Amino acid sequence: MSINGAMLNADGSPILISGEKLFYSTTGVRLELESGTGYPGSPNNLNLNFKTGSIVVTNLRIIYVPLAPMPNFTNLNIPLEHLRRGKLVQPWFDANRYEATVLPVPFGGLNEQAQVKFSFKEGGGFEFSSIYEQLRSRLASESFC
Fold it and tell me: Which of 62, 72, 83, 130 sits a CA distance of 20 to 30 A from 23?
C-alpha cells in the first residue's frame, strides 16, 4: 500500500499505467484505515478517515481517491497482492463494507500492516468484493503457471 502513489488527472480520476485495465469504479465510498500500535505518541500510528470518495479496481491495484483530499493525502494505492484476509460485511442497519489487512510497500508511507475498511454508502460493496476476489484468484492461478 502506498499513500499518494497513484497519479491523478485534473478531475481527480486515477491515471492508468501501461497494461492496466479498469474493472470496477464507484463513488460514495467511505475509507477507514488504522495502522500502528494504537498507543498515543507512537511514531508508526496512522489513522485515516474519509467520509466519501471513489474507488477504482484494476487488474493491478485498488485506488481510493477522497472527495475532499488533504494536502498530505490525495489517494491510497493498494497493489492487489497487498490486500489480505478480506471479507464483505453486510450489517442490518448500515452500509456494506469490505474489511481487510493491507501490507506496506517499500517507501509507500506505511511502515507496518494496516486494517482498512471501505464502506459502500451508495451500494456496490458486493460487486467490489466479487470483482476483487475474481482478480485475486486469477493472480493466484497465474503465479503457479
Answer: 72
Contact 136, 80 (CB under 8 A): yes
Distance (Å, whole) CA 49 – CA 33: 7
**For cell 502506498, what's the residue?**
2
Model confidence at 141, pLDDT cuts 50, 70, 90, reads confident
Comparing C-alpha atoms, which of 53, 62, 50, 45 is closest to residue 132? 62
Q: What are the counts of helices (DSSP H) followed by strands (DSSP E) for the chain? A: 1, 10
Cα separations in angstroms, 48 against 29, 60, 76, 115, 132? 14, 23, 10, 11, 22
Instruction: Quickly list DSSP for 32-80.
Output: EEEES---TT-TT-EEEEES-EEEEEESSEEEEEESS-BTTBS-EEEEG
For a pLDDT cut of 90, what percent of the chain falls above it? Answer: 68
